[in-house]
Amino acid sequence: MTPDLAGHARIMALADLVTPMSVRTAVTLRLADHLDAGDLTADDLAARTGAVPRPLRKLLDHLVHLGLLRAAEGRYGLTDLGRLLRRGEAPMGPFDQLDLDTVLGRTELSAVHLLHKVRTGRSVYHGMYGTDLWTHVDRAPGTPDDLKAQLALPPGFDIDVLLDHPVLARARTVVDVGGNTGALVEALLTRHPDLSATLIDLPSFAGAAAQRFAAAGLDGRAAALAQDFFQPLPAGADVYVLSAVLADWDDETAVRLLRNCALAAGGTGRILVSEVSLTERLRHVDTGMTLWFEAVMDNPDRSPDDLAALAAEAGLKVAAVEQAGTRIVLELHG
Known about the structure:
The protein has helices at residues 5-14, 18-28, 31-35, 42-49, 53-65, 80-83, 103-107, 114-120, 124-129, 133-139, 143-148, 160-163, 166-170, 183-191, 203-215, 251-265, 279-282, 287-296, 304-313; strands spanning 40-41, 69-72, 75-78, 173-177, 196-201, 222-226, 239-243, 270-276, 317-324, 327-333. By secondary structure, the protein is α/β, with parallel strands linked by helices. The strands form 2 sheets. Strands 6-5-4-7-8-10-9 form a 7-stranded mixed beta sheet, with helices on both faces. A 3-stranded antiparallel beta sheet has the order 1-3-2. α2 (18-28) packs across α5 (53-65) and α4 crosses α5. It starts with a helix and ends with a strand. InterPro entries: COMT-like, COMT_C, COMT_dimerisation, SAM-dependent_MTases_sf, WH-like_DNA-bd_sf, WH_DNA-bd_sf. This is Methyltransferase.
């Protein structure tokens, strides 16, 4: 059989790891920013970035091949495409997930462990770190600085269906369980002036949330409590919110977390479970992103019925289900 050399070459190009890592290295070294003022030699760039000239030169040559840089007489400059990689002083940019010096950039490498998800059904982060993503991020060097860049970001994904939920309109106290850097709490307290909130999350996230609350003038209404949300939660609040949390956990762990919320809510509190469901919509237009969500989450595909089944196992009843766009909200009670 005659070898299909063109087909083989195409497959190897599809499997290439060098190019994705070259672009990430360029972003991490901020090569586009260093070249913004004018062309430089490889030695100049090495001195400015703290890199070693020989491998850097080979990286630059590959970036020329990719059309991100141009080269002439031993000097390198930006192409129009390469200029898009300039990051400037903006706290968050479109390519921040490519920066390998940040927690976000390192977690983007999770796709390398896709085989772990396919074989075990567990998030790739267990294969990478031996633990869940959030515990790893909380302990990682540089996390507090990385999280500062997120403090200006609002909550997303059709959030109004949660912010305007009638249970919250009647509430005076809310606990945001796994509240990350506090975007949801800030939005809730802005929308509901009589509401006060406690955010629960691991220390790095709770610390960032406390900074957000102070900057927003919410010190008297919002508190950030640093703890694992599998530990006992503050009891007696009107509402406990789990927003975009359960997708990161398998069924057994999700039920455990729901039971913990139920214990804190008692007979009078309500639990709002809000999940973002993107995969069905993306499945037809972006199979790569669909696969990435599957890789990094334990279960990104739970339907309202699936969530209701988890609630029932935790001893909870569903009072109402709402859905808008990509977001599902279940109101639960004991």
